[in-house]
């Protein structure tokens, strides 16, 4: 028996909105420690890794480890039926082929049940090693989304260069070039607006705009985003979900021209 | 028919010469119309600036300003010309759907020059096997051992009280194949015949192993001195081996499997299973 209850169904909505563009379907691995999801997009360029800790739920019970393959578009449809203030309960029997989503309105005068068929997904699971990144950038998530959106107009890829002075996002295309520089700011009063850079050595990597823009769909989840970079390692874009877990995106860098 | 679309372009030309010929020479005065269109002011590149779209009926969700591609001039009096869109030929340039699924778009992109995540992170392959696979593998290795007649980790020792016996020279773990009780596989009638023959000679020991496999009675006769070790394993009611039948190439064979973990240097024994009065009279050691 699996049961997870979360007061804020809006969080689930935001998570689904963030990943449903990248993934058509995904397996939710439920264990005693929480709900985990790891899946690559079809082109195997990016990877989504979601962790929702069991202690972040209002009620969590998982008797046996359970893998629930779900179609994310259908799941998003179901969550569209819920109000943001509703409490959501996800239920599944052991070895069941359906999952139940129950939405309770705040005053409990309305309870809606949605059952969805589960899928058997044969997905590859990647082993992600612990990495000490050369650069870790924390910045307002809205700012990052804005930069990605703006630069996407000029080129297909964005180069992120991190030096001790700051971070530079640059791109170039047919119409010209675009550069956005962000310096480190320590805004102690408004921590969510500050930009912090932890740097071991300067890094400069190029990534596909399209994916970065998909990642920024997760912006409503967190006020800050963390970008971790190292040479020859995928970029990690991490959004902390307050009191619940995190949503991480891994993005493989573009192949440099001289590599061929 | 293109679904639900009716487009009529009525063309009014005041010029006497045929301006709709493929090479119009017209550079004359403007046509006067009720409403001016942009083409009145800017000459189209093909020189057909006098074509005016008068009426467009959009029923469906086709773009509001259709691109007129296939204009045909109807044969008829020079003026006024009537130009109609041939709906069947007209190809409406619909914009590609603005929002394609990202992954579809990329996977079909031929100049996809991105690294893959799998280049950096290894795919985790589970090394866990199902119980069935494990059993099958075990069976296969056992058959292999039997076919090759493997007898490893064993040696013959002569005991003062009971003669020859077999001891281990390496440890065996519970469930390991130890040795085969090899001999002639015979049926029950042949076994009875041989028993009679052996009974005449008191020096022959008892090496007949009767067993059932798939509800059929068989016997392995190991009376002949073959050099195989299986026939020399002694009896004990609390032995450290058990006998199993295994079908190899559709022939049942007897294997001795370690019942417990066996240390190196221990004598291996198994229960002969014969408790009949007759046998006990001749071989009193069967009781122990």
From TrEMBL, chain A:
The GO cellular component terms are: PCNA complex
Which residue numbers delimit the Proliferating cell nuclear antigen PCNA C-terminal domain?
127-254
Matches recorded under InterPro entries: DNA_clamp_sf (IPR046938), Pr_cel_nuc_antig (IPR000730), Pr_cel_nuc_antig_C (IPR022649), Pr_cel_nuc_antig_CS (IPR022659), Pr_cel_nuc_antig_N (IPR022648)
Cross-referenced Gene3D superfamilies? 3.70.10.10
Q: Which Pfam families match?
A: PCNA_C, PCNA_N
Q: Which PROSITE patterns match?
A: PCNA_1 (PS01251), PCNA_2 (PS00293)
Record carries keyword Transport: no
Q: Is Disulfide bond one of the keywords UniProt gives this record?
A: no
For biological process, the GO terms are:
leading strand elongation; mismatch repair; regulation of DNA replication; response to hydrogen peroxide; response to methyl methanesulfonate; translesion synthesis
Chief location of this protein?
A: nucleus
Where would you find this protein in the cell?
Answer: Nucleus
Coiled-coil segments on the chain, per record: none
Q: Which keywords does the record carry?
A: DNA replication, DNA-binding, Nucleus
- GO MF: chromatin binding; DNA binding; DNA polymerase processivity factor activity
Domain Proliferating cell nuclear antigen PCNA N-terminal residues, every copy: 1-125
Q: Which HAMAP family match?
A: DNApol_clamp_arch
Q: Which family does it belong to?
A: Belongs to the PCNA family.
Q: What does this protein do?
A: This protein is an auxiliary protein of DNA polymerase delta and is involved in the control of eukaryotic DNA replication by increasing the polymerase's processivity during elongation of the leading strand.
The UniProt entry, under PANTHER family, shows: PROLIFERATING CELL NUCLEAR ANTIGEN
Q: What is this protein called?
A: DNA sliding clamp PCNA
Organism listed in the record: Tribolium castaneum (Red flour beetle)
Which gene is the coding source of this polypeptide chain?
A: AUGUSTUS-3.0.2_08874
TrEMBL record, chain B:
GO CC entries: nucleus; polytene chromosome
Q: Which domain of life is it from?
A: Eukaryota
GO biological-process terms attached to the record: methylation; regulation of DNA damage response, signal transduction by p53 class mediator; regulation of transcription by RNA polymerase II
- Subcellular locations according to the entry: Chromosome; Nucleus
Query: Is-annotated flag, keyword Acetylation?
Result: no
What EC number(s) does this enzyme carry? 2.1.1.361
Ranges for domain SET come to 152-273
Q: Which keywords accompany this UniProt record? A: Chromatin regulator, Chromosome, Methyltransferase, Nucleus, S-adenosyl-L-methionine, Transcription, Transcription regulation, Transferase
Q: What is its main location?
A: nucleus
Q: Does the keyword Transferase apply?
A: yes
Q: Identify the Pfam families for this entry.
A: SET (PF00856)
Q: Which InterPro entries match?
A: KMT5A (IPR051760), KMT5A-like (IPR016858), KMT5A-like_SET (IPR047266), SET_dom (IPR001214), SET_dom_sf (IPR046341)
Q: Which reaction does it catalyse?
A: L-lysyl(20)-[histone H4] + S-adenosyl-L-methionine = N(6)-methyl-L-lysyl(20)-[histone H4] + S-adenosyl-L-homocysteine + H(+)
GO MF annotations for this entry? histone H4K20 methyltransferase activity; histone H4K20 monomethyltransferase activity
Q: What is this protein called?
A: [histone H4]-lysine(20) N-methyltransferase
Record organism: Tribolium castaneum
């Amino acid at each position: 028996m699996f049961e997870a209850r979360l007061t804020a169904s809006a969080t689930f909505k935001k998570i689904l909105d963030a990943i449903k563009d990248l993934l058509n379907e995904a397996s939710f691995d439920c264990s005693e420690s929480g709900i985990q999801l790891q899946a690559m997009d079809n082109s195997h360029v990016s990877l989504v890794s979601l962790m929702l800790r069991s202690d972040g739920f209002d009620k969590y019970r998982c008797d046996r480890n359970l893998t629930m393959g779900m179609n994310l578009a259908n799941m998003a449809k179901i969550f569209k039926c819920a109000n943001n203030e509703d409490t959501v309960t996800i239920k599944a029997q052991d070895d069941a082929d359906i999952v139940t989503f129950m939405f309770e309105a705040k005053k409990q005068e309305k309870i809606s049940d949605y059952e969805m068929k589960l899928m058997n997904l044969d997905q590859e699971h990647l082993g992600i090693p612990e990495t000490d990144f050369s650069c870790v950038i924390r910045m307002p998530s809205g700012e990052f989304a804005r930069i990605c959106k703006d630069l996407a107009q000029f080129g297909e890829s964005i180069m992120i260069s991190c030096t001790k002075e700051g971070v530079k996002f640059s791109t170039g295309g047919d119409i010209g070039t675009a550069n956005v520089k962000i310096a480190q700011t320590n805004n102690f009063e408004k921590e969510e607006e500050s930009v912090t850079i932890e740097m071991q050595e300067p890094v400069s990597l190029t990534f596909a705009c399209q994916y970065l823009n998909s990642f920024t769909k997760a912006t409503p989840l967190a006020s800050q985003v963390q970008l971790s970079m190292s040479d020859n390692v995928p970029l990690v874009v991490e959004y902390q979900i307050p009191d619940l877990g995190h949503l991480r995106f891994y993005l493989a860098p573009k192949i440099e021209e001289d590599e061929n | 028919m293109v679904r639900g679309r009716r487009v009529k372009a009525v063309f009014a030309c005041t010029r006497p010469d045929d301006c709709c010929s493929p090479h119009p020479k017209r550079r004359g005065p403007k046509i006067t119309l009720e409403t001016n269109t942009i083409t009145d002011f800017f000459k189209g590149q093909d020189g057909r600036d006098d074509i005016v779209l008068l009426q467009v009926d959009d029923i469906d969700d086709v773009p509001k300003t259709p691109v007129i591609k296939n204009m045909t001039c109807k044969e008829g009096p020079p003026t006024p010309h009537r130009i109609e869109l041939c709906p069947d030929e007209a190809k409406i340039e619909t914009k590609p759907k603005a929002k394609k699924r990202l992954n579809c778009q990329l996977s079909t992109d031929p100049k996809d020059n991105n690294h893959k995540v799998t280049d950096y992170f290894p795919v985790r392959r589970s090394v866990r096997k199902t119980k069935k696979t494990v059993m099958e593998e075990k069976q296969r290795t056992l058959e292999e051992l039997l076919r090759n007649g493997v007898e490893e980790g064993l040696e013959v020792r002569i005991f003062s009280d009971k003669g020859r016996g077999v001891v281990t020279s390496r440890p065996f773990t519970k469930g390991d194949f130890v040795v085969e009780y090899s001999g002639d596989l015979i049926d029950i009638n042949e076994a009875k015949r041989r028993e009679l023959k052996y009974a005449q000679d008191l020096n022959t020991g008892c090496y007949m192993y009767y067993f059932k496999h798939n509800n059929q009675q068989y016997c392995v006769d190991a009376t002949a001195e073959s050099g195989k070790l299986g026939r020399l394993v002694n009896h004990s009611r609390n032995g450290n081996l058990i006998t199993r039948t295994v079908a190899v190439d559709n022939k049942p064979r007897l294997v001795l499997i370690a019942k417990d973990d066996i240390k190196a240097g221990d004598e291996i024994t198994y229960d002969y299973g014969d408790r009949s009065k007759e046998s006990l009279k001749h071989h009193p050691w069967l009781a122990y």
